[in-house]
Amino acid sequence: MLPFKLLLIKKVTGGWRVTNGTRELNGGPKRGWDAGLEYNDTYQRILLHLNKKRKPQDVILLIQLRNGSRVGEAVDALKEFCESGKIEVYIRVEKHRNSNDQRLMMLPEELRTSQGKILLQSACSWISGIENPKAAIKTYCKRTYGFNTHGLRYAFVTYMLGKGVNPSIIAKITGHKNLSYILHYTELKTAEDLLRGPP
């Protein structure tokens, strides 16, 4: 949770500014496990780059963002989408040690169109030739967009919270075994809203 003093600064300065899909305070990006990415701006940025540059890595980032997953789960989902031809697959939750917990991953609608299927096939071909796709995607994301892939996961969480989705449902979607991260984020959002005062 942000220190009270920082929350007051935020209130006095009028809030976060969005630049290239990233929330910033006083000219600097928000730090920590939440990269401050705004879901819709980030989605548009990745989609625009995908359509313009046709990079297979963007297919994986789109899958990750649209599902609120970890990058390794998005990589596994892509492999399953490629092998099965299905639009929904179950994959193992990455961080649940000694567990066979699975989560649903959906193929984004943008990749179900005729043009999207071409991009998907390109990503399928690319990933089959990469030794460590998870590391390659992390590096690509940092170099291309300037943020960590995990920021996509929390952009999704923020988006769902903004839509009023219950934190326990968000945890089920994202595969959080422990609600503490989601509750921490929910409490931060609630504190910020309280500081903003009535509409």
Description:
This protein has one domain: hpI Integrase, Chain A (Orthogonal Bundle). It is 59% helix and 10% strand. The chain is built from nine helices and five strands; from the N terminus they run H-E-E-E-H-H-H-E-E-H-H-H-H-H. Strands 1-2-3 form a three-stranded antiparallel β-sheet, with no helix packed on it. Helix 2 runs antiparallel to helix 3 and helix 4 (71-84) crosses helix 5 (114-128). It starts with a helix and ends with a helix. The relative contact order is 0.15.
* Reported CATH architecture: Orthogonal Bundle
DSSP strand tally = 5
Provide the CATH top-level class: Mainly Alpha
Cα gyration radius (Å): 17 Å
* 3D shape: globular
Strand order of the largest sheet: 1-2-3
For the termini, the CA-CA separation is 23 Å
Helix content: 55-70%
Low-confidence stretches: 1-17, 23-31
Order of helices and strands: HEEEHHHEEHHHHH
Using the coordinates shown, work out and report the CATH topology. Answer: hpI Integrase, Chain A
Mean pLDDT equals 84
Structural class: mainly alpha
Count of distinct structural domains: 1
Number of helices, counting only DSSP H or I runs of 4 residues or more: 9
The major β-sheet equals: 3 strands, antiparallel
Bin the strand percentage.
5-15%
Provide key terms for this protein.
199 residues; globular; mainly alpha; two-stranded antiparallel sheet; hpI Integrase, Chain A
How would you summarize this macromolecular structure in one to three sentences?
This protein has helices at about 5-15, 40-55, 55-65, 70-85, 115-130, 135-145, 150-160, 165-175, 180-195; strands at about 15-20, 20-25, 30, 90, 100-105.
